[in-house]
Sequence to fold (675 residues):
Amino acid sequence: MAPRTFKKAIVAVSGTFPGYKQADLKTLVEGQGATFSSSVSQDCTHLVTTEKDVEKGGVKFKTACGISTCEVVNLAWLLESVEAKKPLPVKSYLFTNDSSSPVPQGNGDATAVKKEEKEVKKEKGGAKKRTHDDAIGANGAANGEDEDESKKMKDSQKASSKKLVVPLDEGCTLGYSVHIDDSGLIWDGTLNQTNAGQNNNKFYRIQLLVSPSSDYRTWTRWGRVGEPGQSAVLGSGGLNQAMKEFEKKFKDKTGLTWENRLNTPKDKKYAFLERNYEDSDDEEDNEDQVVKREEREEREETPVESALPQSIQNLMTFIFNQQHFVSAMEALSYDVKKMPLGKLSKRTLHDGYQILKDLSDLLANPGLANSKYGRTVPAAAEDLSNRYFTTIPHVFGRNRPPVLFHDKLIKKEVELLEALTDMGVTNAIMKDSKDVERERVHQLDLQYNSLGMEEMTPVEPSTAEFIELEQYLNHSRGATHNMSYKVINIFRIERPGETDRFSNSYGAIQNPNRRLLWHGSRSTNFGGILSQGLRIAPPEAPVNGYMFGKGVYFADMSSKSANYCCPYNSGNMGLLMLCDVELGDPMYEQEYANCNAAEDSKKEGKLATLGRGSSIPAGWKDAGSVHESLKGVTMPDVGMGSKNEQKGCSLMYNEYIVYDIAQIRQRYLFHVNMR
Fold:
């Protein structure tokens, strides 16, 4: 529900508004007692934007669509709300994906919006609420029946503008472009087929191309994933003939008509991979921006300098390192050439999760092989694995694609889909920071600003705060972990809204139990983690892929979390986070894996699960010794070492799992050399 007073409103802004600078809008927002946010956080209540930004599918817009409590409105809402001295109902100001919707004019005096009058006439925001298709967004969360939701999602094959530049197949050297017809349909088909039994892992690419002289051809290329393959050019130059060649080839390979490309893939046929074209790097290369770039080059301006401290510049360079993205994807066998980061559609990610869930269900209940699939268990597992690798393209070289019939294999694929979600956010920030309209701000500063951090302060190495934190890092290494550290930098961090969310949800609970705990992840995931917070896997993800259910996992041993950083993919460097986590007392304690721990702990009225380890901290102390804001939070007293007193535990070290993101506050980020 939208807030009734400005005091409870958190407003973000996206896009360019004639007559207003961002600073002007910030003054308007804060002048009413509301909070102005430079990014769209989970607590954001309103995103004020433009039709152009909505059509473009900007990062902030996509993020807002994934937050059920965030309303996407036009500038008239803000201006008329300021005049009314209270947030007005948003119904008349909401945006919709349907650009043909009538333009709401709001209820205020026209003189109150004279600076916005021209822009309001352009905006076509209807009163239609955002659908689940929009809201599945950046955090990947989905509700309702999985298959129905997948069918409801927007067809990404439709271009929002004919100016969209669709990349040519990488093997095509013709000086043509991909055809977009009058309805906005993009004539581009990426097909994939995996069959473990026959050692097939192959692709087929079909594109309808047009030359500057209006010569139309159908381009095809096919082969084993990861290899160049063979190619052919079909057609005699006319559009109708090229369309017929395209449609015939598509049906021959998929068993489906081009019109029905989103239908369920046919057995033993290629599957159509839906792409997200709207984030294409080439899309922004329109004439206006080419002119701006040329003007900038003519001016030969002095390169702009970053206003960030050097340590934060180094951190941004590390988080947004393109080569690290490639290395991470190669380690997970993902085919980044066929589906570059940010190109997988929401529907494809959703379907990938759903197939992994089906595999997990089969693993837990082999009887489903006959009752649900009419196959033997091995045949059902192979069929589902084939479907998954057909949907989410992988590179296996000449090796046989695996059958995903083990928790560890399924967990690795869940990790891939989670990484694709976070890396997609990071990749979008990288792309957004290259926008030539903001050329007089350093790219690293734009990347940092896109994270929307409330605070990121380098901790001075000479301070007691730094020394305490470094000791916690170095002296909480497990005896079985061969890991050495060298701290590059430590940052005190805070995300906007997390403190209020934490206080409102858990600030007054009985028997609090707040601890300062570690969380590690690939460096390439941190664009998403910092900008959108730590998140819980979506409903369609398989619960069997998580030892203690779907939640956010923490440790009191730094090396346990460091193992998830995969520093070998990022130049032997990694990022570790310390979070203030409310666990409640007592916790739901488990000695062995329990993938139903999220539900079981809730039934017992517990806020968190403790997966008990056999080697644990020998003592705990108040973290106020690190920073006064941490008073009341406990952390291991590493000076006391560890003890091995717990018997019969399957884990070597403790794991802490929470199932509500409101229990988490990000407090410190460590940039570390790891070997």
The mean pLDDT is 84. Residues 139 and 479 are 36 Å apart (CA to CA).
